[in-house]
């Protein structure tokens, strides 16, 4: 009979997550950095999560994708499957991959672990932008669209991201900075999730 911990693990992670965590694909082993066409590094080692993604590109197609992380099991599984997804994919398509596309391929992630797939998504985006900059295609870099989180005070996810980059550490500080959640308060749960995600990314 399995113990409680075993039952929880079975419940939490899909077989696809377990497979990619136990046998991660396309891990950066040696010094392959030198011949990469694009490089993206996100996260903060101080809070334990950092992700490096390198891509090789030919005729607008990603021909190789390597990665290295100090992240958790979910970050490893997410980026492993992401690296498989993008090989052979046009840059334009890869540029628009979202965390929900990654978690769908993994057959889901526990809700508390969704933010881990954001690391790979952001690092890939950064690697593609690095490639665009190096190849004089900066006009292809797109501003990420903002989503309104607090409708009462018109605060977006970009405002929360900016606040965290500026040093905000908790919900009270975020509220002081942006006035989020100061009317009906319905936005608080989503705002706290995003705060958590961005703290992982920017420390
Ligand atoms: S939706 Fe944010 S306070 Fe109402």
CATH class of the largest domain: Alpha Beta
- The radius of gyration over CA amounts to 18 Å
How many discrete domains?
2
Share in helix: 40-55%
CATH topology of the largest domain: Sufe protein. Chain: A
What is the β-strand count? 5
Structural class: alpha+beta
Instruction: Bin the strand percentage.
Output: 15-25%
| Contiguous uncertain segments of 5+ residues | 1-10
Primary descriptors:
203 residues, alpha+beta, Sufe protein. Chain: A, Arc Repressor Mutant, subunit A, 2 domains, two-stranded antiparallel sheet, 9 helices, 5 strands, 47% helix, globular, binds FE2/S2 (inorganic) cluster
Task: Describe the structure concisely.
The chain has 203 residues and is α+β, with helices and mostly antiparallel strands. Helices cover 47% and strands 15% of the residues.
Outline the fold blueprint:
Blueprint: H1 4-12, H2 15-22, E1 38-44, E2 49-58, E3 61-69, H3 73-86, H4 91-95, H5 99-105, H6 114-134, E4 148-150, E5 155-156, H7 157-165, H8 171-178, H9 188-202
Antiparallel strand pairs: 1-2, 2-3, 4-5
Helix pairs in contact: 2-3, 3-6, 5-6, 6-9, 7-9
Residues 150-153, 181-187 line the site of FE2/S2 (inorganic) cluster.
């Amino acid at each position: 009979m399995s113990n409680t911990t075993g039952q929880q693990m079975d419940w939490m992670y899909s077989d696809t997550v377990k497979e990619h965590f136990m046998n991660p694909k396309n891990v950066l082993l040696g010094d392959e950095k030198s011949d990469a066409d694009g490089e993206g590094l996100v996260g903060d080692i101080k809070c334990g999560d950092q992700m490096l993604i390198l891509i090789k590109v030919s005729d607008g197609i990603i021909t190789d994708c390597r990665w290295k992380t100090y992240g958790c099991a979910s970050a490893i599984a997410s980026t492993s499957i992401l690296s498989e997804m993008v090989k052979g994919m046009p840059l334009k398509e890869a540029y628009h991959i979202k965390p929900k596309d990654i978690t769908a391929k993994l057959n889901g992630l526990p809700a508390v672990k969704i933010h881990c797939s954001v690391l790979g998504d952001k690092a890939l985006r950064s690697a593609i932008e690095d490639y665009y900059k190096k190849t004089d295609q900066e006009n292809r870099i797109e501003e990420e669209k903002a989503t309104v989180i607090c409708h009462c005070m018109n605060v977006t996810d970009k405002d929360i991201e900016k606040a965290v980059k500026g040093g905000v550490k908790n919900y009270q500080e975020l509220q002081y900075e942006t006035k989020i959640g100061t009317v009906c308060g319905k936005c608080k749960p989503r705002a706290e999730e995003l705060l958590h995600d961005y703290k992982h990314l920017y420390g």
